[in-house]
Amino acid sequence: MRIKRLIQKKTKKFIINKLANNYSTIFQAYNLSKLSFCKISHVPIKFHKKNILADKNEEILLKIDGQILPKILETGSFDPFIYNFLKKQKIKKNFLFIDVGANHGLVSKQIANLKFIKKIITFEPAKEIFKLLKINLSKVNKAKNYNYGWATKKGNLNFYENPSNSGDFSLIPNKQRNFLHKYHFEIADLQLKKILKNNKNYQFILKTDCQGYDIEIFNSLENKLLEKIKFYFLECQNFSDDKKSLFIEKISIFKKILISCPLIHNDLRSIKPRDILNYFNYKVEFDLVLIN
């Protein structure tokens, strides 16, 4: 018995040492567990020092997952690409930031620190996530938040969740997104038209992060609306060939096209519209920054 207890103690110590600071493994184990009686709806993350995501001693609320939560615990930040890019621009005019697929509101929370951002409008269809977003952005007085998404048609649509990644909700299912929800969506073109009409004193920044559905949204927007967007940030994945020609035609509206594709190159580089075909052939995700 003494040998058995010693082995158990040594094994336990070995496992703890291996898991220490590997937050993703811990939270993935939680997600894979059978939660028969209850679950942890969210966790508060308290910051020891001020950064672009939170003030000192401020808390943000997050779902338990294997991606966003461990990343913030390790680095104290979350996807600061858009914030860092905009901060480097010599911007003097007043801007409105439109955040489609806002998730926990973390990108908008960072963007709110930029002085030229005078107004933020967020859209998030997932009800459980939206509740956390409202709390996370409760101190951002310039933010208006809406509990619906953008799509090419209106209604309560099938929306698929990846339980291991609280940032991976999409209208497009895959093997990882195996939880089905019904959430409300409005027509993207009409939503953008309404925002532009009601906010004529602003310049516009549009960000979409819709897990593979971004190009569907982009292709559905009228050209005259796209011409009024100063900066458009969108995430791209490979999609059907019949939509690529329209996509190339529409990105040609913009004066400058920048691409970020960390799996292929480290820099943010300028490309011509047809160069985008090369990145589709790589079959990897990449981000575009379209500038007027």
Q: How is this fold's topology laid out?
A:
Blueprint: H1 2-19, H2 23-32, E1 43-46, E2 59-62, H3 68-75, H4 81-88, E3 95-100, H5 106-111, E4 117-123, H6 127-136, E5 143-146, E6 149-151, E7 155-161, E8 169-170, E9 179-187, H7 188-198, E10 203-208, H8 214-220, H9 223-226, E11 231-236, H10 244-251, E12 256-260, E13 268-270, H11 276-282, E14 286-291
Parallel strand pairs: 3-4, 3-10, 4-5, 6-9, 10-11
Antiparallel strand pairs: 1-2, 7-8, 7-9, 11-14, 12-13, 12-14
What would your notes on this structure say?
This protein has helices at 2-19, 23-32, 68-75, 81-88, 106-111, 127-136, 188-198, 214-220, 223-226, 244-251, 276-282, and strands at 43-46, 59-62, 95-100, 117-123, 143-146, 149-151, 155-161, 169-170, 179-187, 203-208, 231-236, 256-260, 268-270, 286-291. With 292 residues, it is an alpha/beta fold. It has 2 domains: 2-68, no CATH class; 75-291, Rossmann fold, CATH 3.40.50. The strands form 3 sheets. It has an 8-stranded mixed beta sheet, sandwiched between helices. It has a 4-stranded mixed beta sheet with strand order 6-9-7-8. Strands 1-2 form a two-stranded antiparallel sheet.
The helix content, as a percent range, equals 25-40%
Low-confidence stretches: none
Q: What amount of the residues lies in strands?
A: 15-25%
Report the sheet with the most strands, covering strand number, pairing sense and barrel closure.
8 strands, mixed
Spell out the CATH superfamily of the largest domain. Vaccinia Virus protein VP39
